[in-house]
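Tokens in:
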């Protein structure tokens, strides 16, 4: 038996464990108010990975996967696979997300492209000013740099 395998039995005998002990052995610590943020980050990261796994899938207007997608179909599909329901269109998805600033964006957040007050495109933020998206007819799902400042950000909760 390794020292790491003995830790749980030692903690059980002691009856209590400090947060540092739990962290050192890879245990989890419940902190009020943070569990939701942590699980949201995990869900967003998983949705991002699902979108990335669809690299090369053809764009098709109105398609929601699993082999073809339009922009909002890709985001809908990716979040549905991790248990989060989104509405069908980019504009409806924008209205359903928690709006955040560019400075607060994280991988897995949604990026909404707009003209004036109208949202016309959506992708999933991948970090480093890039998104996974299904751009247009004749294209495929791909990672691409954000090409405009006319974007808003939303977090799926």
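Residues out:
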């Amino acid at each position: 038996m390794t020292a790491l395998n003995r830790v749980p039995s030692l903690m059980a005998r002691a009856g209590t464990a400090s947060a540092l002990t739990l962290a050192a052995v890879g245990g989890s610590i419940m902190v009020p108010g943070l569990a939701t943020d942590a699980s949201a980050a995990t869900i967003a990261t998983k949705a991002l990975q699902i979108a990335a796994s669809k690299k090369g899938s053809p764009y098709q207007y109105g398609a929601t996967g699993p082999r073809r997608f339009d922009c909002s179909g890709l985001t809908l599909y990716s979040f549905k696979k991790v248990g989060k329901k989104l509405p069908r269109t980019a504009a409806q998805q924008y209205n359903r997300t928690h709006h955040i600033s560019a400075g607060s964006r994280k991988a897995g957040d949604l990026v909404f492209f707009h003209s004036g007050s109208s949202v016309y495109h959506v992708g999933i933020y991948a970090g480093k000013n890039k998104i996974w998206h299904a751009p247009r007819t004749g294209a495929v799902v791909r990672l691409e740099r954000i090409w405009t400042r006319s974007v808003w950000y939303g977090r799926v909760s």
